[in-house]
Amino acid sequence: MAKSSSKATVGGVKCAAFWGHDGKALADFYAAALGWEVTQTFGDAAAMISDGTTAYVFYTAESFKAPNWPDDELVFHLDLVFDDVEDAEQRLIGLGATKPAHQPGGKHWTVLLDPSEQPFCISARG
Fold this sequence. Notes:
Keywords: Lyase. This protein has a four-stranded mixed sheet, with helices on one face. A three-stranded mixed sheet has the order 5-7-6, with helices on one face. The protein is built from two helices and seven strands, in the order βαββββαββ. It has one domain (16-124): 2,3-Dihydroxybiphenyl 1,2-Dioxygenase, domain 1. It has helices at 23-34, 85-95, and strands at 16-20, 37-42, 46-50, 55-60, 79-82, 110-113, 119-124. A hairpin with a 5-residue loop joins strand 6 and strand 7. It starts with 15 loop residues before the first strand and ends with a strand. It is an alpha/beta fold.
């Protein structure tokens, strides 16, 4: 039997990656949504955004198919927080998001679809 180490192994997330019809367009959308910057591009296939501590990479996948939400289970999605949720919703829609009729969050969160038609949620900070 192996000896147990007294120090716990601690990991961290360096980056999260997402796929869609157009990785660069998704990077531009989320950078504008969050007030971040596109920090790196990878040819025509991908782009990275960051706030200096967290990074997301958005890849183009030619065979990408958006989930048929809410019927399809989601593999992953983002929850974004804002000081003024109503203002954020209107700004995000202006950037290319859409608001589906199905809104399971009540007053707690709002579901929007990004330009690749993938759901993400917005809510108030705190």
